[in-house]
Design brief:
By secondary structure, the chain is mostly helical. Helix content is 69%, strand content 0%. It is built from nine helices and no strands. It starts with a helix and ends with a helix.
């Protein structure tokens, strides 16, 4: 599965980099081939990790192993997993989201706490504004100045509702 997803990532990267007038890298046949291989891998995994049998008188959920739980998630969340492959706007990984959270965790580790929920909310709001500004290629110092002088117009600018 790992190799298949990396192959799909390479194809998406090539598709995104191709010239508009050149032949598509991800056509219907390629997409069907990748999806078929995905299904085959899931089926192979299910053969190696079958559902555990229910014992007589057993109630509640069945205890499944990690491999079976992963297979179930890969099967039920197929559309989310392949969204990077079918939609050019979706990144392969969530590194940006992880980077956005990293400062919060660092701040929390250094000071130990935010002392109050109000301070934590203010910190999150400010980090959100900075992250959004960077993603939209604004200079952070200009955005922070605008936060102080004209916060309403800044919100409209960053959300595109002006």
């Amino acid at each position: 599965m790992y190799d298949l997803l990396l192959e799909a990532k390479k194809l998406r990267t090539r598709e995104n980099a191709r010239a508009p007038d050149s032949r598509k890298v991800i056509g219907k046949q390629t997409q069907a081939r990748i999806e078929l291989r995905y299904d085959e891998i899931i089926e192979e995994g299910r053969k190696l990790n079958p559902e555990p049998p229910r014992k007589a008188g057993q109630r509640g959920r069945l205890a499944r192993g990690k491999a079976l739980n992963m297979l179930r998630r890969l099967d039920t969340r197929r559309d989310e997993i392949f969204s990077f492959f079918t939609d050019a706007e979706v990144p392969f990984d969530n590194n940006q989201a992880e980077r956005d959270l990293r400062m919060m965790k660092t701040r929390e580790k250094i000071s130990g706490t935010f002392r109050s929920e109000k301070n934590a909310e203010a910190f999150c709001a400010l980090r959100s504004v900075i992250s959004t500004a960077r993603k939209q290629s604004y200079r952070v110092i200009d955005i922070l100045t605008e936060v102080i002088h004209a916060p309403k117009s800044l919100g409209e600018k960053l959300t595109g509702s002006h």
